[in-house]
Design goal:
9 helices; two-stranded antiparallel sheet; 5-stranded antiparallel sheet; about 300 residues; Beta-lactamase; alpha+beta; about 35% helix
């Protein structure tokens, strides 16, 4: 049988393939600092028996009637209170009385930042007006004016704060100003702060102020509506108050209270993050209600 001659085109194609450079496939190297395509989530820390998940460095929830703790996390650890300091400031002002007394703003009151109601020297406000401005707006210039007018100086008012704190059993705290702007020696603990808040909530005016969502502030520039910084007033059923706080060293701080079926609990979260200020507090308040002691 005659064999056909090889096709010249096929021979040429085969030679061309042999002469092509060899390519190798290299696996992509993972460089530190570059996100991997499928990151492995970090494991959630396991909770000890009876522990509840909280972002806060320290926390407590107490029974308002007895003051007894229902749950605690680092209750005696020192933290910076930020503007929750104003709870004690308001308590002292209310306990002093004469709440229709006119406070005249001094130049030194207007130099406090960053949160303020832009007070001007010579303006006059009643103590009640200033209490609303301090607790809803968290105005530091207002806290300064109230404290200076009450005691003559910030140093003298701080002495009053420390004395009242000791009277309440808050023995691990030290206060150096009425507003909570950061100072290394201005600190409290979750437990101490809950004791101060519990006493403050026994004052009807304090309770009324911290449960107010909006307040019409009549200042030198005209009326303006102040909105309470405590979002739990509209986000947690039964919330009755209290006070937020934030500085960079303190991080987020919140004291909150709620009433359900005639029983009230007060929670404190310190050194938490922005979601935690609300979620931690909701968790603690809910836990508190479910662990209140029953009375015969």
């Amino acid at each position: 049988m005659a064999r056909s001659a090889p096709n010249p085109c096929l021979i040429f194609a085969a030679l061309a393939l042999l002469l092509l450079p060899t390519h190798r496939v290299h696996a992509k190297k993972h460089h530190p600092g570059h996100a991997s395509p499928s990151p492995t989530p970090s494991p959630t820390p396991e909770l000890a028996p009876g522990e509840i998940p909280l972002a806060a460095g320290g926390a407590v929830v107490i029974d308002e009637i007895s003051g007894e703790p229902l749950y605690e996390k680092n209750p005696e650890q020192e933290f910076f209170p930020a503007s929750t300091t104003k709870i004690l400031t308001a308590l002292i002002i209310i306990e002093t009385g004469d709440l229709e007394h006119q406070v005249t703003v001094e130049p030194e009151d207007t130099h406090v930042e960053p949160s303020s109601l832009d007070l001007k020297p010579g303006e006059k406000y009643t103590r009640i007006q200033l209490l609303y401005g301090m607790m809803l707006k968290s105005a530091n210039d207002v806290a300064q004016a109230l404290a200076r007018d009450n005691a003559g100086s910030i140093e003298a008012f701080s002495e009053k704060m420390n004395l009242r704190a000791r009277e309440l059993g808050a023995l691990s705290s030290h206060f150096e100003n009425p507003h909570g702007l950061h100072k290394p020696d201005h600190f409290t603990t979750p437990r101490d702060l809950s004791l101060i808040a519990r006493t403050a909530m026994q004052q009807p005016l304090f309770r009324k102020i911290v449960s107010t969502v909006n307040y019409e502030w009549i200042g030198g520039a005209g009326p303006v509506w102040l909105q309470n910084h405590n979002k739990l007033l509209t986000r947690f059923p039964g919330c009755t108050g209290l006070k937020t706080g934030y500085t960079v060293p303190a991080q987020q701080v919140l004291v909150s209270s709620a009433l359900r079926d005639g029983r009230e609990v007060i929670s404190v979260v310190m050194h938490t993050d922005h979601p935690g200020i609300w979620e931690d507090s909701k968790t603690l308040l809910t836990y508190g209600f479910s662990h209140l002691p029953t009375f015969p």
